[in-house]
Amino acid sequence: MSTTKKIAGAALAAALGVSTLAACGGGTKKDDGAAASGSPKSKTVTLVSHDSFNVSEPVLKEFEQQSGYTVKVLKSGDAGAALNQEILTKGSPRGDVFFGVDNTLLSRALDNGIFTPYEAKGLDAVKPEYVLDEQHRVTPVDSGDICVNYDKAYFADKKIAPPQTLDDLVKPEYKNLLVTENAATSSPGLGFLLASVGKYGEDGWKDYWSKLKANGVEVVDGWEQAYNERFSGSAGGKKAKGDRPLVVSYASSPPVEVLYGEPQPAEAPTGVATGTCFRQVEFAGLLKGAKNEEGGKALIDFLIGKKFQEDMPLQMFVNPVVKDAKLPEVFTKHGAVVEKPENVAPETIAKNRDQWVKAWSSIVVK
User: Fold this and answer.
1) Rounded distance, CA 299 to CA 278, Å?
2) Rounded CA gap, 104 and 99, in Å?
3) In a structure prediction context, what are the per-residue pLDDT tens digits for the chain, which is 366 residues long?
4) Is 201 helix (H, G, I), strand (E, B) or coil?
5) CB pairs under 8 A, 24+ apart, for 311-316?
6) β-sheet bridge partners, residue 219
7) DSSP state of 173
8) What residues does 282 pair with on adjacent strands?
9) Of 356, 310, 353, the residue nearest 107 (C-alpha)
10) What distance in Å separates the CA atoms of residue 16 and residue 265, rounded to the nearest whole number?
């Protein structure tokens, strides 16, 4: 499956003809002998991440100058693939810190014991609802919401109110309008499945999906196809003549449509059905066996520092987890505030994820 909303944001930016900054930081520099050998004197700290990690160069440079560490970023595919590599190299990690495990994969990481507990400096500034591991094996870094997005122009032209809740999506007026991603192959697809589990419980979500199928939901492999080809409201979808005005995407998608629109629109062309959302939280952890443990701790402190937290939204299209971090204006003006997202406990996801996806596939993908 794909990683998180950050890949979607980067892909959306690419579809609109722009590129995001690469997070190479000090990784482009030549390491000195101590760094190469991984000795205690090493001043290189290595962050292992999925492909969507991003940070602006000035913010990273400031951390490097203040800490004395050079940051090397080792990108390793999508979140699941990156995590699996660390599980396979447990005790002899490829880096010092792992970033990108989210609440759908958290129990897998913790059960495999790949992290060393560390209570980060500044953790008291993190919103307590995001601190899901009391042993501090992982530290929350960002959050975001998987939600149904809608094409404002379509619903205005048809004089139909856009849906706002999961219940709305099975109503006759929304028949054959929704496209979603495959829960077996896509992170937003899985998140949308989990939203239904959170809303209707283990006894009701299957019936809900049976109703969605009867109401004409379309399933495609991944976010790129759903959002940039089938969805009529996105810049990419318009070019591809997409005919589905409802899509499973992210609450941060409308601000990105504005940010990279040419010309930049005064209002986002898409909206968010805030009663359809599942909240993802991403974490960083100090890898067990890290060669530069002190540098790893400093890097985790940096990731929840205000400077990084306020840089993050426009770099990775996610929300800060720190209480006093401010969002950029494009987010506050055009983004959606999700007051009551659906949640499922990480241990419940770990226990049931595979059987839920299998049951979902038997209902929807036949």
Assistant:
1) 28
2) 14
3) 333 344 445 445 444 333 333 333 344 333 333 443 344 457 999 999 988 899 999 999 999 999 999 999 999 887 878 888 999 999 999 999 999 999 988 988 999 999 999 999 999 999 999 999 999 999 999 999 999 999 999 999 999 999 999 999 999 999 999 999 999 888 899 999 999 999 999 999 999 999 999 999 999 988 999 999 999 999 999 999 999 999 999 999 999 999 988 889 999 999 999 999 999 999 999 999 999 999 999 999 999 999 999 999 999 999 999 999 999 999 999 989 999 999 999 889 989 999 999 999 999 997
4) coil
5) 311/55, 311/56, 311/59, 312/55, 312/141, 312/142, 313/252, 314/259, 315/20, 315/21, 315/23, 315/54, 315/55, 315/56, 316/6, 316/9, 316/52, 316/53, 316/54, 316/142
6) 180
7) G
8) 102, 142
9) 353
10) 13
> How many Å apart are CA 345 and CA 281, to the nearest integer?
12
Tokens 């049976």 — which residue?
A: 210
Beta pairing, strands 139-151 & 246-250: antiparallel
Q: What Å distances lie between residue 344 and 63, 128, 358, CA to CA?
A: 35, 16, 18
Q: Between the CA of residue 130 and those of 61, 283, 353, what are the distances in Å?
A: 28, 9, 21
Rounded Cα–Cα distance for residues 339 and 87 (Å): 35
Q: 17: alpha, beta or left, given left = phi > 0 and alpha = psi -120 to 50?
A: left
Residue 220 is encoded by which pair of tokens? 């495609």
DSSP for residue 15: H
- What b/e readout covers 21-54, taking b as 16+ CB neighbours within 10 angstroms? eebebbbeeebeeebeeeeeebbbbbbbbbbbbb
